[in-house]
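hey can u check if this looks right to u? its 383 residues, i copy pasted from the old doc so theres a chance i mangled smth
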Amino acid sequence: MSYRASAFADFHPSLAAPGCTPERLAYLEEHSFVIIDDFVDSSWIPILREAGRRLTTACAPENGYDVIDSSRGYVHRAAEQEPWAIRGLAHPAFKEPCFSEFHGSDEFLAFVESWCHGLRPEDMTYGGLLLWCNPRKNEMGPSWHRDTTWWGTGKPYFSQSEVRGESPEDYSEEVERERWAEIREKNKKSISERNGVSMFLALTDDECHEVIPGSHNRWRTPFEHDVLLPQKMKDAGVPHTPSWNRRDPLPGQVAIRLKPGQALIRNGTNIHTGHTVPERERNTLSIGWSRWSGPVEGEPAVADARSAWQLDPAVREALPHAWMQTAWDRWAETHKLGDTLEDRYAGFDAERIKNGEFAGWRSELERQASESRGNWERFQEAS
């Protein structure tokens, strides 16, 4: 019998008033998530649903780059290279312009304006889209975590290298409490300031996102600490209370149950996981906008590999509105492309390039790596 959650959170009819309401904000602040139904009747949902299905099929490992050139984006892959999340939806190589069209539509912008204190297109900076899907061959999950660095330096995740701290001292309770105080303060600001909004917009029925309600706003339990603490830190002697068998439900966990057009807005500092099974389709769009904070001094930073594809000028040219191109300019001026395959690609694509496929950015780096016949080292630069 395939996995199914033991408890669910569904849309509350009492929260049906559209846009940003005091009731929705209060629910989000208390529980760390809120389900909205503002797009249930949107004509965009069936259009995006079929586009999502086409992309998920196109990114199947057996298709390589024959259907779309997915090396122009960043596809997260599970066992047997099955996709579970797809970045690159705005790249013309993905051949699905409807995602950017909805991203810039009056319908979506009206919600953003309501949620974010009147945020208008001329004040936005660009952020990419992401499609959540389910691997077709294997169950994936659970992998409980917080979308924040609750240990060590507190720096955000950077996919190319570890910048957060990986010593036992970084996971001490003293350091964790310092980070937690910072996280709590940011949580308060996120509710009052609302300088952006991101949501998980279901294109089909979705019950694959599971959370511990309220875990964004309280100190973790000893059980939760055992769940969150990496095994290598346990092996290194970080004090903890062995509690979890890596499979059983956690105390208080619920699966967010969405119908097409319903969306999850959440505080990602809560404890959560994705959990998919092959026979239950997931086709959910992460989408949002943020307020531009103004010009940034200093040199551009190397882009995280997950968003390096966004630096392609072809992405800018494909955006359907001039204000979206301006938003892209604001993001792009603070980032630059890294000089190694690891700076630019998911592992699937880096390996294909090393093994002879001239793909991706098709610069001198990719040419030399593809001609190396597998003799290309990690983080090697073009000569």
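The CA atoms of residues 271 and 303 lie 27 Å apart.
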